[in-house]
Design goal:
By secondary structure, this protein is α/β, with parallel strands linked by helices. 46% of the residues lie in helices and 18% in strands. It has 13 helices and ten strands. The protein has a five-stranded mixed sheet, sandwiched between helices. It has a three-stranded mixed sheet with strand order 2-1-3. Strands 7-9 form a two-stranded parallel sheet. Helix 4 crosses helix 13. The longest helix has 15 residues. It comes from Flavobacterium algoritolerans. InterPro entries: AF1548-like_C (IPR054374), ATP-cone_dom (IPR005144), Restrct_endonuc-II-like (IPR011335), Restrct_endonuc_IV_Mrr (IPR007560), tRNA_endonuc-like_dom_sf (IPR011856). Keywords: ATP-binding, Nucleotide-binding. This is ATP cone domain-containing protein.
Length: 276
């Protein structure tokens, strides 16, 4: 059966690929087989992947809110927009989980011009600048112009010392992070130029998806027991990750949730982060 991707491309439906993504949600093999059966019964020639995703999400939610939340990860990261400010905070949290010191949203004077830097991190006496490329559209990709441009900024900044973590720090590494993907040319140029890339699916074994699952870095936008408005309120309170709710549940009172709803949110959060 032919299905239509987000990009408009028409491809053959791959049930094994869908099954794999459903299993990663944490649902049991029996539940996943039942969901696949239900989806196949409703499918038709030319159905969109978006519609298949909606069906899968709805059916997963019936097994457990946390399964649907985990399945919703990529969309949840996209909801850290629209400007990408909260995506930058999320990336800072990601590096902090790997024992980096972090600073966000800072301006530094280069040899030639002033630069606004999304995130700066330090580990083992090495300081890296991180530029975040947030995309609203799922099919958008960062092409070769992105690393070419950021390399020029990096070269301008590494020529000088800066007061970041200490009075005289030097930037020695550069990362480019996107919530979507990089084109092949962008990857090739970055490798050749010594730039580090991180995207939803790159590097293959250490990307945003795998890092998230390893360190339980699920953003609050994952949660199915909160409305979009309530998620936005948490982000404004600088509550970016689900596990931050578990450790500081009073933030749910601050956004006006009832005791019963707080109980439901915490249940989903603890299951999502495996705090059980």
């Amino acid at each position: 059966m032919k299905i239509v991707k987000h990009s408009g491309d028409i491809v053959e439906f791959n049930s094994d690929k869908l099954k794999k993504s459903l299993l990663k949600s944490g649902a049991s093999a029996i539940a996943v087989d039942d969901i696949l059966y239900a989806i196949k019964k409703q499918m038709y020639e030319g159905i969109s992947t978006k519609q298949i995703y909606k069906m899968a999400f709805s059916l997963l939610k019936k097994t457990a809110n946390s399964h649907a939340a985990r399945y919703n990860l990529r969309e949840a990261i996209r909801l850290l927009g629209p400007a990408g400010f909260f995506f930058e905070k999320y990336i800072a949290r990601l590096f902090a989980s790997e024992q980096y010191q972090t600073v966000t949203n800072i301006s530094l004077q280069g040899k030639c011009v002033l630069h606004e830097i999304d995130v700066l991190v330090k580990k083992n006496e090495q300081i890296s600048m991180i530029e975040c490329k947030y995309h609203v559209g799922r099919e958008a990709a960062s092409d070769v112009k992105v690393p070419m441009y950021i390399l020029s900024r990096f070269n301008d900044l590494k020529e000088r010392q800066h007061a970041i973590f200490e009075k005289k720090d030097s930037i020695s590494n550069c990362w480019i992070v996107t919530n979507n993907r990089f084109t092949t040319d962008a990857v090739d140029f970055a490798k050749c130029s010594g730039l580090n890339l991180l995207s939803w699916n790159y590097p293959e074994d250490n990307n945003l998806k795998t890092k998230n699952d390893t360190h339980y870095l699920y953003p609050v936008t994952c949660l199915t027991t909160l409305s979009i408005a309530e998620k936005d309120k948490l982000l404004i309170l600088d509550v970016i990750l689900v596990k931050e709710i578990i450790n500081h549940s009073d933030c749910l009172e601050k956004i006006g949730l009832s005791p019963n709803r707080i109980k439901n949110v915490l249940k989903e959060a603890t299951e999502l982060c495996s705090y059980i």
